[in-house]
């Protein structure tokens, strides 16, 4: 039986990984072992970062809503509680957008739930 040297398959597999390291410095983009470690870590942090982004954005929205509520002598938790009891279905993203760009609109929402 003839011996398969895996030249094409191995090169294709390596090239797929090396394409992901474009722009990396020194050994990270040149040597196989460093490249594999770097790519695996980068893929892990890319996945983890997508989850973190959702967390961070929600925190930012809450901070913006709280800051706008404080101008109307209201705490964030009381404001959210009033929204739920009145049945206003505005999510935090939209409330934060109102608070940051249209304070008069946010004041109308606050007045409607008071």
Describe the structure.
This protein is mainly α and 114 residues long. It has one domain (7-113): c-terminal domain of poly(a) binding protein (Orthogonal Bundle), CATH 1.10.1900.20. Helix content is 75%, strand content 0%. The chain contains five helices and no strands. It has helices at residues 7-20, 32-71, 76-86, 92-101, 103-113. It is rod-shaped, with a radius of gyration of 26 Å.
Summarize it.
Helices cover 75% and strands 0% of the residues. It is an all-alpha fold and 114 residues long.
Q: Which value, in Å, is the CA radius of gyration?
A: 26 Å
Ranges where pLDDT stays below 50 over 5 or more residues in a row are none
Helix content: over 70%
The CATH level-2 architecture is identified as Orthogonal Bundle
- The total tally of domains equals 1
Strand-helix topology:
Blueprint: H1 7-20, H2 32-71, H3 76-86, H4 92-101, H5 103-113
Helix pairs in contact: 1-2, 2-4, 4-5
């Amino acid at each position: 039986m003839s011996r398969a040297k895996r030249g094409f398959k191995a090169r294709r597999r390596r090239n797929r990984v090396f394409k992901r390291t474009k722009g990396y410095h020194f050994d990270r983009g040149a040597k196989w072992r460093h490249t594999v470690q770097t790519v695996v870590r980068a893929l892990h942090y890319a996945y983890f970062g997508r989850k973190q982004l959702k967390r961070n954005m929600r925190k930012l929205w809450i901070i913006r809503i709280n800051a706008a509520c404080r101008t109307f002598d209201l705490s964030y938790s009381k404001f959210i509680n009033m929204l739920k009891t009145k049945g206003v279905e505005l999510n935090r993203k939209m409330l934060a957008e109102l608070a940051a760009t249209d304070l008069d609109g946010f004041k109308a929402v606050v007045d409607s739930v008071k």
